[in-house]
Hints:
The protein is of the alpha+beta class. The chain folds into three domains: 52-319, alpha-galactosidase from lactobacil brevis (Beta-galactosidase, Chain A, domain 5, Distorted Sandwich), CATH 2.70.98; 325-545, TIM Barrel (Alpha-Beta Barrel), CATH 3.20.20; 638-747, Golgi alpha-mannosidase II (Immunoglobulin-like, Sandwich). It is 19% helix and 31% strand. It contains 13 helices and 39 strands. A hairpin with a 4-residue loop joins strand 8 and strand 9 (158-167). It is globular and about 80 Å long. The two termini are 37 Å apart. The relative contact order is 0.09. The structure holds alpha-D-galactopyranose.
Amino acid sequence: xxxxxxxxxxxxxxRTANTEYQMRVNGFGMLEHLxxxxxxxxxxQPVRFFGRDIRMHKDxxxxxxxxxxxxxxxxxxxxxxxxxxxxxxxxxxxxxxxSLSVDLVYQGYQILDGxxxxxxxxxxxxxxxxxxxxxxxxxxxxxxxVKLSYILFAQEDVIVxxxxxxxxxxxxxxxxxxxxxxxxxxxSHFDLIHFHGRHCAERNMERLPLGHQLYTVASERGMxxxxxxxxxxxxxxxxxxYQGRCYGAALVYSGGHRIQVExxxxxxxxxxxxxxxxxxSWELAxxxxxxxxxxxxxxxxxxxxxxxxxxxxxxxxxxIPPQFRDVRRPILINNWExxxxxxxxxxxxxxxxxxxxxxxxMLVLDDGWFGKRNDDRAGLGxxxxxxxxxxxxxxxxxxEIHKKGLKFGLWLEPEMVNGVSELYEAHPDWAxxxxxxxxxxxxxxxxxxxxxxEVQDYLFGCFQKILEDAQIDYVKWDFNRxxxxxxxxxxxxxxxxxxxxxxxLGTYALLERLTTAYPDLLIEGCASGGGRYDMGMLYYCPxxxxxxxxxxxxxxxxxxxxxxxxxxxxxxxxxxxSPNHQSGRSTPIETRGIVAMSGTFGFELDPGKxxxxxxxxxxxxxxxxxxxxxxxxxxxxxxxxxxxxEGYFSAWMFVSEDRSEALLNMVVExxxxxAIVPAVRLQGLDxxxxxxxxxxxxxxxxxxxxxxxxxxxxQTESYSGAQLMEYGFVFPAVQGDYPAxxxxxxxxxxxxI
Length: 753
Ligand code: GLA
């Protein structure tokens, strides 16, 4: 494992536990991509494939007497533009003389221990094993220098890439595109998998066999978005959850993004990933530099589950704030779906009391506690308490809640302002808005221009006051609209193409300031649910509210879609009331609990409206969640693929690192007539060991029916790991609405059979 340069072959090799990446400095001084995939353990031997003369290419004689060279088919590490490679480019510029071409040649390299932090941006955090290969490329004609970083996370099978672009010329360079990642693959035998969605329906998986065209997965909304997550996979057509070659790429960025995948005339594939493009431009004065966000790459030969597990390990170990890695996070209750805007101190304390009696550990006061916020048309920006609702303010409320043995959390939506607010009256120019044009409202709100220092200072000042005054353990950081009219009053007209990225940098600066000043404050990200569910936000917020859709059955798909990249320990998930407020569906409390437990686990309902039976069930869920906490949060997560493809039920499981225990979860999503007994093959167990499991067998009655529950008898069963994985586990017969099982498999003490 490590990074090597083979002088004789002029080949760079990056080797992780199971993967390898190679590139070569060719005879023309270009950086040629050679290989990415499973370990080869030797330098790739020269291949014939690229020795073809393809029309419409740069004159090869300029590069030596190599008649068969064709830039347009050549695999490159970071493609320039305008000089004969007609595929999607990694970088585009306008030079001082107006010329548009970029042609990069190799200059040199360094291998460094650790990695450079990215100024102003979240990044993948290094550890003592981390190594960086830094390669310098240059276009001497326009004076552009590009430093490509390849950062190795060998145990996780991850290579992180980013680029720094420096103007070494005499005049002003305008960047039109600066990708974090440009990567050429040999062949086009891939399916592209990406995750699209909308509010309350995030991260639906779509899988397309690549054809000869340019695919774009992008968000131009100034946020990573509900609509297209900044994560894609390329895998063998035959790959499934358990086997096949799979690549994944994700951007550590929360603003707009663009991922392009192109299959070229020679049936090869290029992927380019970076910031959103619409209107983007960035002025680079002589000596100035531009840093792209990190892009995270991983490969697994063990199917989609294998690839997801690499990303999960990386996010848990290198993205989320380290102080939250090994600390159990509180089981919370949020008042949003219990009260919406209609609450006062008495109501909140009543919820807190009931919650404390159930064993819940934190109360989160959601939207509506500040300014004149009695509905969603006023108040954003006025971050001072509404004493009409909460006399004595947050200090008194937080003290009362702490007295009940609960922590206290608070909702904020920092980047927003309502037209009806004191803040907007005082500083109308602080909102992003076009001169002379009516500003596009969404949920009656505008977006503050976070690129401005005075806006950041105002917000930090408000939050500091709140955090110093009251005992606040948690903040929910919301963001409830996409950007529009992205015009910053502080930027000159020719630099408005910088406004969207500068907005994002301003948000990160505020988050950085807050998390530095209050490192133990737990921040849960949110953007109308999962509209900013990305590694950029996860760098500051160890958990993110996954979706405003709290219907347990619909959540299964949202949690599954999100799990392709993100670990369950980052997924804000709550048990809410039945019938559900988004779908109107009724689902048993047991099922709602099992689904929410595959996340951070919490509640979002009025506990005063629960029956005694439901309360007892919740007490049991809290006991179970505490017992299985580390198995769920740190165990190896498997989607049990055969199950959900059939649409009948979904199953997923967690296996502890030493394979001594596993937690199997199953929910019937669509009941069948004369239902086939559900069965599923388990994963990740020790085949030679025997596992004991207690299975609830229901006699009479209906699952989840309070009037006729029947009786439940616990039957202890024992199976070999081999049988569970090769033959499968057969659940008891199911009936009723959305029955679910959560079964704990424990390795027998003798370990064998
Ligand atoms: C967004 C969030 C919700 C809730 C409301 C409050 O929609 O996703 O959870 O906080 O805002 O207005």
